[in-house]
Amino acid sequence: MKKTDTNYSRRSFLKVSSLSGGGFMLGISWFATAKPEASLEALQMEATWQELTSYIKITPDNAVKIFCPNPEFGQNVMTSMPMLIAEELDVDWKSLEVEQAPFNTALFNRQFTGGSQSIRSAWKILRTAGASARQMILTAASEAWAVPVTELTTSLGKVMHAASGKSVTYGSFATAATKLPVPKGIELKGNSSFRLLGTPQKNVEGAKIVHGKSLFTMDYRESGMLIAMTERPPAFGMRLKSFDAIEAKKMPGIVDIFPIQVYEPTQKLAMFDTRSFNEVIAVVGKTTWEVMNARKKLKAVWEVSPETKELGMNNRDTIVPAGLESTKQHQAEMLAKGKLPGRIERKDGDPDKAFAEAKFVLERTYTAPFLAHNIMEPTSTFAHVKGDKVRFVAPIQGPDFIASTIATRLGIPKENIEINLARMGGGFGRRAYGHYMVEAALISKQANAPVKLIYKREDDVSGGIYRPTYTLTYRAAFDENKQLTAFHAKGGGVPESPLHANRFPAGAIDNYLAESWSIPTNITIGAFRGPRSNFNAAAEQSFLDEVAEYMGKDPIAFRLDLLQRAKSNPVGKINDYDASHYMGVLELVREKSGWGKPEHANKKRGVSAYFCHNSYAAQVIDLQVKDRQVRVDQVTSAIDCGVVVNPEGAKNMAEGAAIDGIGNALFGQLTIVDGRTEQTNFDSYRMIRHAEAPKKIEVHFVKSEVDPTGLGEPPFPPIFGAVANALYKATGKRFYDQPFGPKI
Amino acid sequence: MIKKFSLKINKKVQNVQVDENMPLLWVLRDVLEMPGTKYGCGVGSCGACTVHLNGQAVRSCQLPVSALAGQEITTIEGLAAKGDHPVQKAWLDVDVAQCGYCQSGQIMSAAALLKNNPNPTEEDIENYMTGNICRCGTYTRIKKAIQLAASK
Ligand code: FES
Ligand code: FES
Fold it and tell me: What would the CATH number be for the domain defined by B2-79?
């Protein structure tokens, strides 16, 4: 991690224009080198990947408005991104207005929320925009007052001239500034001169939220709008054979019932085009309740679907196997496959020899189930198709991807697609897959009306796009002095391997082997907060705990020893992480939690640390187990995510990640019998609740001068390992299979 | 069967003509255009749809409209005339929300809790609020906000 590690595209641009009625508007658009089809790694994408767009508007009466480019799903970008602009623009944060920018293919591309990358990739461009706008206002003032620009200063939305004592608002120069060229080579503030960045600021939509204002797609309505739902196969591996809607159509409030095909069989699917079922029955009516009731009267016949071939971009076709799958069968298959040699992902030294010569080998296998996203706001989309145009209000993490798909499916130009980005009631990866927008558009087209498509909670839980189920087997070899001589990780899953072969402890051990395998499935899977890392961290950090114990070492000291080795004399050429930053969070969490101090001797604590999405997080958890119930007393987190833009929002998100992780580690699971999910709603899918949340959470950020690196995901994966390690202290039992709760 | 109902919501009489089994949640959201009360599960398991019925917190997804004649219903929109209920203020002070979707329900539950029990212990809060899920994990902040509102 270098100090100024920002890929600042040369093709970025700022465009100035005037507002009707006078005033200034600076449009910000950044074309980056996008490779949307590149790989599933995209959710952990590099900074060069996305494009950001935003606006700054200043009216003659000095109303300043900043448009947030990226979709908001609770990660607080609507606060933190405008802060970047406001800092350099030098306006009063309290008096400016923030709004969500719409997605508009004519103006921009690739607005994306995911991979913890919003702030990282906006860091320079949004500040440059703010600084450029300020410079143009200054220039306009210097021309109006006929004084050199160097004699002018600004403060909170005012231009000042010390010699004459003049002080006038930006708004007075807003119209004149639109006539000026956008300055080049603008200089940004040094981190030490930040006035706003690094100060805690509250959620800009906080007041609307506590007053129950209409913010979400679920809340959206307009006149003539109908409500739609879809009836889908009751199990993965099934499809529609036929249906009879005569009775259902007679139900009160029902307007129409018809089948839709989400994608055409000949359509090449892009990576975010995943959908659970391709053919579903749309039920359209006046109110949600009426549509729900009519669904019950539908007589649909479903059949087991044969093996199908899904056409992918760049000739990446996928075979979707036939059959009604079950969790038990997955577990047995994973166990068997894990015993066979896998695909070698990395090999350092001579692991075979080291294992053959070992005095002792510690081997452990870890598993985790499918997880449903359970976004709090169920899936919904408003769509209105009119001729060859379509207008959406939608909760979508990556509007650009789905816009291309919609254009193909509807056979309309991409420019004819308007997407208004609604605040999302959670995302966690689920809303990267916008098939529901295609569905809503198809329904609107057929019904010839504006339509809001709603999924019932049951639809969301039982027909989701899940976190895959995984298995990882670790082996560690020791010599006669109990020194670690070799390390072997073999991981796989349905349908992908969780392994990150070049992450810690790769680079710290001379003899190292990483292997992968996978099992195809017809259960749909996708990105889930910290994809793959969310399991890797759990397994690896539990195993390292056991290794440290065998070696008679303190778990933090043991990790620091390994990292010291990776720092001073790394093994192999490609190691994804920076050992010093890793050590930094471990040292900070050791200090802040008072690790090893006699006053904490009776506490049942576990530690864990992980690197993902360019950031480092370490956590210590203190818990108790009584009557097989877990009480979490405290979580202490140490995080290195570079400069922290908004400590208030950042803390909130890190607290949430800890709670989310504890919940999933203890309770989260989606199990399948004959293609059907056993959990269908919150009465059967066990979510963490108030009493189970930690009594206290402390979040500490490493003080850093490094450009922001990302925060939405990094504090989530390690907590799983910390829970497992603390449970061992509390119960004397090691926990290998998630969720741990039922096994305590 | 479709029938006429006269409801008292946020101190105002509202006449609706709907299916007698329609839950209050959908009467509010789809018929009266009051979207503050949220749909989360429809089975009484998440608390997103919490409203007050005669001052008590109830799950509006479980209340058929036919059962509500003459009763006082309060939604998030009517919790305080100026939107400045101590719980709402505390929520802003503590900066509770992440995505925000669960928060109307959390606030309605918290307001009912404090009405019945102005000085709740930590355990009281945890127990009372257990029916309200927050997927984003704002539980510790919610507790802090309730304690703050109680202290005012
Ligand atoms: S929507 Fe009523 S409790 Fe979940
Ligand atoms: S704030 Fe997102 S569910 Fe509670």
Answer: 3.10.20.30
